[in-house]
Amino acid sequence: MLLLAVSIVVSLSIGSAGISVRDVWGILIHQLPWLADEPVDYSPGEVAIVTQVRLSRVLLAVLVGACLALAGTGFQGVLRNPLADPYTLGVASGCSVGAAFIILFGLQAALGMWTIPLVAFCTGTVTLLGVFWLSRNKGVMQIETLILSGVIIQSFLGAFVSFMVSMSESVVNQILFWLMGSLAMRSWDNMYMLMPFLAVGFPLLLVYGQSLNLFVLGERHAAHLGIRVERTKLIVLISSTLLTAAAVSVSGVIGFVGLVVPHLIRLLVGPDYRLITPLSAIGGGVFVLWADTLARNVLSPKEIPLGVVTALIGAPFFAYLLHRRKLKQGGSL
Amino acid sequence: MIEARGIVQSVEGRPVLNNLSCSFQKGRMYGIIGPNGVGKSTLLHLLSGVEQPKQGEVLLNGRSIYSFPRKQLARQMAVLQQSGLPPVGFSVREVVSMGRYPFQNWLGNEEHDSETTIDEALTAMGLRELEHRKMDQLSGGERQRVALAKLMAQEPSIILLDEPTTYLDIGFQVQLLDTVRAWQRERKLTVIAVLHDLNLASLYCDELVVLHRGTVAAAGTPQAVLTSALIEQVYETVTAVIEHPLTGTPQIMLQPNSNK
């Protein structure tokens, strides 16, 4: 929590516009309603950058990170698969297909601002079902097969998104945006869009924390202890897919957040999902915030796509997990 | 009391149980025996209420077992699986306290303090020294003891055991069944155990249920059931049955065919 607060403060303070740290905070404090009457000496441009661009972006990064990390926690818990994550399962790509389709054909108006996340959720769910169907062998899902299916579906859908985007007028940036993820050019509206999804998904996953703990012992053990296994699986998978859809709708596909964060949290606090779930939400926020701060500052004023940063960190981590799993084959991670 | 009526069930398309009926009285220890693949574990699985049979019904105290909410059922019935507990990162105490799940509300709180129940279960299984150890640092036998302690913490009145002694050496086999038997007598529990070893079944069970060709071939006390003739009919091998020198229960002596 403290780490999150510190990260927000630092990230707010740095940026390409060259506003001094003092001015950033002057502007922000000035926004507080009870101080608004004091005289101002900041240019409207600076004020706009801080409140409209930077503050919204920082908060959005935190929320997107929380969504993705929570989704990863849910997938890992219910599938008992340490390599599961919205990205490796292909769900994120599935969501992006729906979202890209809506945007490119200009269908946003149908249901107002909820069109994109809802369609993304539908295509994400279909993708998840497809991945399960591909990987199921006589009713058993092998951990590696599941991930392999996810990767196959993900590259297929990724190609599909690229194809759709190449057909549109404004190309290169958008391709990067959807395939590599970015938080550039987002606004407060995006954040309002994200909020309800988080408000539904987060408490649900919290309530099911103890159930996920029992899942660790195996589905049958969980059933014998009085858990409605199918219902729990359904609710956790749907919550996780919802969170993924919301995150993808505002930021494109940002990989590996849901993989890395719950694992680091698990290393820190142990296997109890009642702790992992809330801490992953915070950790995910911190992780994406730092990744995004790097993304917009390292080559400033140029931006690196956010997904590039998370993949540079996440892919080696994924390889490490795979390697460790190979070492203790047969044991669970 | 648990009762199975006219059960028909297939596993992966192969018919296993065919019009099977049997009943289990409160406060007694039952052994389900029979050759490989006869459907012993399938029957136990059906009795646990997790799966429904194709035909027939399972009644718990006269009411269909599938009509119970899962948590309510778990407060009455606990199951020890053949596979045992996996080597997870939870500590022994954490796993044993998971046995309290059926008594918790959706916030994870319990009406009464359960710590003493958990302590008792740990003590009964001799796990007090290991309680803070992680499951993945334990041996198979130790994990089986944790599984049993978790069962005790669940405070059931009916216990189903699926080949609980399969992966244990004879010392642990006797220790485990001694514990179960003592606990069963003390709390007047109903125990239904699938057992591979006929001699252990004979030593520990009040009654045996012999499965053969998808149905019950014989049921009754070990003395009544374990006869040379029945064993030859069911297992297709000739054996000698003698009395145990201390307990008087029937014990099976295997006979190699080359010795005739």
TrEMBL record, chain A:
Matching InterPro entries: ABC_BtuC-like (IPR037294), ABC_transptr_permease_BtuC (IPR000522)
Positions of transmembrane segments: 58-75, 87-107, 113-134, 195-215, 235-261, 273-292, 304-322
CDD domains associated with the record: TM_ABC_iron-siderophores_like (cd06550)
Membrane-topology descriptor: Multi-pass membrane protein
A biological-process GO annotation: siderophore-iron import into cell
Pfam families named among the record's database cross-references: FecCD (PF01032)
Sorted UniProt keywords: Cell membrane, Membrane, Transmembrane, Transmembrane helix, Transport
Gene Ontology CC: plasma membrane
GO MF terms held by the record: transmembrane transporter activity
Location of the protein in the cell: Cell membrane
Principal place of residence: membrane
PANTHER family from the UniProt entry: ABC TRANSPORTER PERMEASE PROTEIN MJ0876-RELATED, FERRIC ENTEROBACTIN TRANSPORT SYSTEM PERMEASE PROTEIN
Family to which this protein belongs: Belongs to the binding-protein-dependent transport system permease family. FecCD subfamily.
This protein's name: Iron complex transport system permease protein
Native source organism of the sequence: Paenibacillus prosopidis
Automatic annotation (TrEMBL), chain B:
Name of the featured protein: Iron complex transport system ATP-binding protein
Gene3D superfamilies according to UniProt: P-loop containing nucleotide triphosphate hydrolases
SMART domains registered for this protein in UniProt: AAA
InterPro entries per record: AAA+_ATPase, ABC_transporter-like_ATP-bd, ABC_transporter-like_CS, P-loop_NTPase
One Pfam family recorded for the sequence: ABC_tran
MF terms in GO: ATP binding; ATP hydrolysis activity
Species, as recorded: Paenibacillus prosopidis
Domain of life: Bacteria
PANTHER family attached to this UniProt entry: HEMIN IMPORT ATP-BINDING PROTEIN HMUV
